[in-house]
Amino acid sequence: MAENSFFEKAFKLKKHGTDTRTEIMAGITTFMTMSYILAVNPQILSESGMDYGAVFTGTIIASVVAMLFMAFYANLPFGMSAGMGLNAFFTYTVVMQMGKTWQFALTAVFLEGIIFLLLSFVGLREAIFNSIPINLKKAVSVGIGLFIAEIGLLNAGILKVGEISLSLGELTNANGFIFFFALIIMVVLTARNVKGALLWGILVSTILSLILGVTHFPDSHIVSLPPTIEPVFFKLDFSNVFSLEMFSVLFSFLFVDIFDTLGTLTGVATKADMLDENGNLPEIKKALLSDAIGTTLGSMVGTSTVTTFVESSSGVAEGGRTGLTALATAACFVIAAFFFPVFSIIPASATAAALVTVGLFMITTVVDIDFSDISEAFPAFMTILMMPLTYSIAEGISFGMISYALIKLLTGKGKEVSPLVYVLSIVFILRYLLPLF
């Protein structure tokens, strides 16, 4: 490709030591590893009452727009879509546990996006990130990993709610067989470093489900126009904007997304050797703004919080270094939009296996938590423990923050705690005490 080509001018390929072919192949690789979200996200959000097909299309629209900003504005090789853990919080905590409507949850995502836009412009997202203890940041990732793995096991029927607690469900029926079949494929392919291991696991187990009669070929053609987003388009509910519950939900979305995005950006950029001499990512402000734009738009077209995917590391490993990688990934999402009939026949047991596998990926940061100091270890432990046990990411964060502030204060280490952590802990305590009055 000539030096004065459009791609060279737009993405400065030679400056970054790459070329058009490498970038496009890296983008396809990133798509292969993160495309499972097109099956999993509609499955999760539809349980909140949202239209499955509309969520599928909305997810693609928000992902593509976010990646276009990541490509042309930030010029970074990161794939973006609806974040795992955040979509689970949307459905299983806000809607199912708190009893709120999906419109309420979408409004919280919309407000989160607006706040992130403002914070990204003034640089406060980095400041907030720096104020939270490192062990709690890592514990949140671990807790979410256990939480979404629990959701996957429940969705597949491997676990069920017993009279006292969880108990084993049906392991030998067709759905259980498909789940374990998909899970083994995903783990084995991941161990063999096969690109798109989760996607291949989903596809192969879907074929098995067709053979067993669990799902059936669509009545329509394999290729079709994407479903309309009309059932979920701009379905926001501002009637409870100033309620304590909205604050609690909004904060949880903000907290998880801040650490998920910044942690992913730092990790992937480190692998790509893109950090400067001070360990910072030069274009991180632009990357965070791209994420905020995707989240704001996503709430309007019917999907949960958009964030940078850790699977972007697969494209980086293939040589992706510029926004052309993100552009190529976005193009793959556009093509996938016309294959909704294929995605619609994927069984819940297959996506459940993907949830469990992603849960494994997320808990790997547990080895980086400092367990030698109990004032650090106990709050991290409470964060991890309470997420799956209370079936809520928000409760895990609350218990972790409160215990961290209290233990540090009572052991004479109060100065180690950021004032912001104390403020947030007081808010969480008031949230538990207010129902008593």
UniProtKB/TrEMBL annotation:
Its main location: membrane. GO terms for molecular function: purine nucleobase transmembrane transporter activity. It is found in: Cell membrane. The keyword Transport applies. It is a multi-pass membrane protein. Keywords: Cell membrane, Membrane, Transmembrane, Transmembrane helix, Transport. One of its GO terms (cellular component) is plasma membrane. It comes from the Bacteria. The chain crosses the membrane at residues 21-40, 52-73, 104-124, 136-159, 171-191, 198-218, 324-346, 352-371, 383-405, 417-434. InterPro entries: Azg-like, Azg-like_bact_archaea, NCS2. Belongs to the nucleobase:cation symporter-2 (NCS2) (TC 2.A.40) family. Azg-like subfamily. This is Xanthine/uracil/vitamin C permease. It comes from Anaerococcus prevotii (strain ATCC 9321 / DSM 20548 / JCM 6508 / NCTC 11806 / PC1) (Peptostreptococcus prevotii).
